[in-house]
Amino acid sequence: PLLVLLSGLGLAQKAIPATLSARQFSTVYNFFSFAIAAMGASAIFFFLSRSEVGPKYRLAMLVSGLVVSIAGYHYLRIFNSWDAAYTLKDGAYVFSGQPFNDAYRYVDWLLTVPLLLLETVAVLALPAIQSRGLIWRLVIASALMIALGYPGEIGTLTARFWWGLASTVPFVYILWLLWGELGRAASRQKPEVQLYSRNMKLLLLFSWGVYPIAYALPMLGITGSEAVIGVQVGYTIADVLAKPIFGLLAYAIAITKTRQDLGLSEDDELVPNPTAVT
Ligand code: RET
C-alpha cells in the first residue's frame, strides 16, 4: 500500500463528479483557501513562539511550525489541483480533464502524523519515549494506518470498506497507546497543566476521529458529488483542528510549564520588565 500511495502521486486518478454546482465547487475551494491561510499564519506564530518558551519546549514549537508548514504547502498543491480539475461553463463547473490529485493529502499525513506524535510526546515530556520505544511504535502504526487507507480512497466502495477497516486496526492501536500514556502524563503534571493535558487528549481523540468519519461518508448513504464535497470538507476541518489548534494547545502547555519552571506566579510577567530590574 505504501508503494501504491507513492506511485499514486503520478498515476492514480480519483473519480470525481463530471459537473458540480457553483456552490459545491466554491465550498471546497474556500475550505482549501482557508486551510492555506490557517497553516501559513500559524507557521509564523509557532516559529516565533520558540523564543518565548523554555529550552525544554522549543523542540515541540519547532515541530509544530514544521507540521503546519508542510500542511500549508500540501494545501496549496491540493487547492491548485482542485482549481484545475474544473472549468466554469454556463454557470456550472464541469470536469476539465485534469485529474484531481488527492494523494498530496496522504503524503502530507505520512509526514505530519509522526511529527504530531513527536510534538505531543515532547511537550508533555513523556518518559516512556525512551524506556519503551513508544515513539517508534506510534510512527510505524501511523504509517500503516495511512498507507492502508489510501487504496480505499481511490478504489471502489467495496475497496473503501475493506481498506478502511484494515486502516482502523493501527488507528485504534495508536489511540489506545496514547490514551494511556497521555492519561498517565496528565496525572503527573501540576494542576494548571493538568487541564491543558486533558484537553490535549480530548482534542486529539476528537480531531483524529473526524478523519475516519469523513472517509466513511460515501458508505453512509451520501452519494455522488455531495460525498466528494463532504470528504474534502471533513478532512480539511480535521486538519485545522489537528495541526494549528492542537499546536496552540501545545503552546499553552509550554508557556505554562515554562512559568512553573521559572517559579513565576500567575501574575508575573514571563519576561522580566527591563525597566523594573534597575
Ligand atoms: C483513514 C482511512 C480510514 C480509516 C482511518 C483513517 C484515519 C486517518 C487519520 C488521519 C490523521 C491525520 C492527521 C493529520 C494531521 O496532520 C486513513 C482516513 C482510521 C486518523 C492527524
Please give a structural write-up.
- This protein is 76% helix and 4% strand.
- With 278 residues, the protein is mostly helical.
- Helix 2 (22-49) runs antiparallel to helix 3 and helix 3 packs antiparallel against helix 9 (224-262).
- The model has no long low-confidence stretch (mean pLDDT 87).
- The structure holds retinal.
- The site of retinal (RET) has 18 residues, from helix 4, helix 6, helix 7, helix 8 and helix 9.
Averaged pLDDT: 87
Q: What percentage of the residues does DSSP assign to strands (E)? A: under 5%
Total count of helical runs of at least 4 residues: 10
Distance between the termini: 64 Å
Uncertain spans: none
Helix content: over 70%
The counted number of beta strands is 3
Order of H and E elements: HEHHEEHHHHHHH
Instruction: Please give the largest β-sheet.
Output: 3 strands, antiparallel
**Small molecules bound in the structure, each named once:** retinal
Per the principal axes of the C-alpha atoms, what is the gross shape?
globular
